[in-house]
């Protein structure tokens, strides 16, 4: 289980415990965290689970694959150096304390 901190565009935060096996996207949906639409259900096709990883992050995240990289070019909010699809971030003890920033819009 990992504690994930979702920071909303207005600066408020939602902190939830997400059990394995889930993704950061699924953790948001299971806990009714607003701001992640996840229209494709987590198959890295729609980009509506776009998040910005906190710039201070030092936790080990999986590398971005080619599909995720391509989808991030079509997201509604601008892509940044820290952009990721939350559906492609599996939850494990190793990412306990992860902070993700939710973009202004997802679609």
UniProtKB/TrEMBL annotation:
Transcription keyword on record? no
List GO BP terms, alphabetically: P450-containing electron transport chain
Q: Which CDD domains match?
A: fer2
What keywords is this UniProt entry annotated with?
2Fe-2S, Iron, Iron-sulfur, Metal-binding
Signal peptide (residue range): none
The record ties this protein, via InterPro entries, to: 2Fe-2S_ferredoxin-like_sf, 2Fe-2S_ferredoxin-type, Adrenodoxin-like, Beta-grasp_dom_sf
SUPFAM superfamilies, per the entry: 2Fe-2S ferredoxin-like
One GO cellular component assignment for this chain's record is: cytosol
Where in this chain does the record put each 2Fe-2S ferredoxin-type domain?
2-106
Enumerate the Pfam families for this protein.
Answer: Fer2 (PF00111)
Q: Which family does it belong to?
A: Belongs to the adrenodoxin/putidaredoxin family.
Write the protein's name.
(2Fe-2S)-binding protein
